[in-house]
Amino acid sequence: MDQAAGSFVRDELTGLPARSEAIAWLDAAADRGHLQAMLLGLHRFRSVNIAYGHAGGDMALAEIARRIRDFALEELGPAGFVARIGGGQFLVAATAPLSRERWQWLAEALGQTVGRALPLHGEVLHLLPRIALLRKSSRASGRELLDRLDQALTSLEQKAGTRVLWADGSHRARGRSAARLEADLIGAMARNEIGLVYQPQYRVADGALAGAEVLARWNHPQLGRIGAETLFAIAERGDHVGQLSRHIVRRALSGDENWKGLVPLSINITAEDLAAQGFSAMFRQVLHDTAVCPELITLEVTEQTLIADFVRSAAVLGELAGLGVRIALDDFGTGYANFRTLKALPIDTLKLDASLIGDVDSDNRDRAILRAIVAMARALGQKIVVEGIERDSQLAVLAEEGCDVFQGFLRSGPVDAATLETLVNIAG
């Protein structure tokens, strides 16, 4: 996204640009022709700090920031921008030409994503945000735009049951009900309409193709492209996460693409997968049916996924590792990872979150942290994969510190199966 250019002073807690940088970005975006913005607020977030202390509140904010950043990256790509305005307020903006209806739908989808279950100190929170949004139609300054959004967000707090409001005072665009979206999703899975794209991964040492991360995409006939984060938020509302996850696994491992069985693939699995009876047996059957070599498959799991039932999750991951697949701890460095996890789980790979290395090429402290993580991984026999690389200077640091694999817009965003096959042929 635009904020990865390296010119922003980042919020220390979340790694996102702060309010002053958001205003500067909005000012600069005024000349780009299209501008949409939304301000997300976590209503009464102070109660989280009171209940769990500031350390607990900071952990929750860091996770919320990660969800917002990942959502924007999936749905908006390089045209998107995310910043922490202060407290529990976040700005999401884009310079892409988006319709009013899609911008509102994205706000509602982001609200679902942020409101998903958030484990904290053995309990589960649901932080439901309110969101003010606008599309710029005048040459207002960045500060004026933020003020308009903030006023709308303040008025939202007085409207019980209303979570999305246009800052221009216009009527709400016609949305699509959650129940309708859930029904659409079930039908899309039945018709095999949930597609896949692939985020290429490259070796740091020589730039050679090292594999690809599997990402789900749904081209909704009315709403347009819907990314994986939003897909799972929709599925969670209707208790369809397990069904969606199994659908993606089968699609990822099956198919007649020429490169299947040649390219290492990374697949994300969820807490529902680990909690489901027979998930490892299902995965074993899919491996048998597709004849894919297990050593070519890496299953990515976040520690947040493990918190609900760590003991059971560890047992299931042990069963999966016993099949020969590799296990990666995803989003490492976002606030949940601890040494117990690294010791208790059969982890082959640490996947470093983009927020951890955003300033690694300009901040000696960030580089020192990276060096320490690499040393720890080496001692444990683990590989290091780094996501979100967007600058040559970042890649140079990864090479100097001995990281193994990277992914990010520096080399490629997500690609379709045909493009990945081209990359495989070039590499071959």
Topology:
Layout (H helix, E strand, L loop, with lengths): L18 H11 L6 E7 L3 H31 L3 E7 L2 E6 L5 H15 L3 E3 L2 E3 L3 E7 L6 H15 L7 E3 L11 H13 L3 E10 L5 E12 L3 E4 H10 L3 H13 L11 E4 L2 H5 L3 H12 L6 E6 H5 L2 H13 L3 E7 L6 H6 L4 E4 L1 H4 L6 H16 L3 E4 L5 H10 L3 E2 L10 H11 L1
Parallel strand pairs: 6-7, 9-11, 11-12, 12-13, 13-14, 14-15, 15-16
Antiparallel strand pairs: 1-3, 1-6, 2-3, 4-5, 8-9, 8-16, 9-10
Helix pairs in contact: 1-4, 2-3, 3-6, 5-6, 9-11
Task: Write a short abstract of this structure.
With 428 residues, the protein is an alpha/beta fold. It is built from 16 helices and 16 strands.
Helix share of residues? Answer: 40-55%
Provide the CATH architecture of the largest domain. Alpha-Beta Barrel
Placed side by side, the strands forming the largest sheet appear as 8-9-11-12-13-14-15-16
Number of strands: 16
Superfamily at the CATH H level of the largest domain? EAL domain
CATH top level label of the largest domain:
Alpha Beta
Instruction: Give Rg in angstroms.
Output: 21 Å
> Could you tell me the mean pLDDT?
86
Shape type: globular
Uncertain regions: pLDDT < 50 for 5+ in a row? none
* Number of discrete domains: 2
* Structural category: alpha/beta
Largest sheet: 8 strands, mixed, barrel
Fold-level CATH name of the largest domain: TIM Barrel
Helical segment tally? 16
Strand content of the residues, in percent? 15-25%
What is the terminal-to-terminal distance? 31 Å
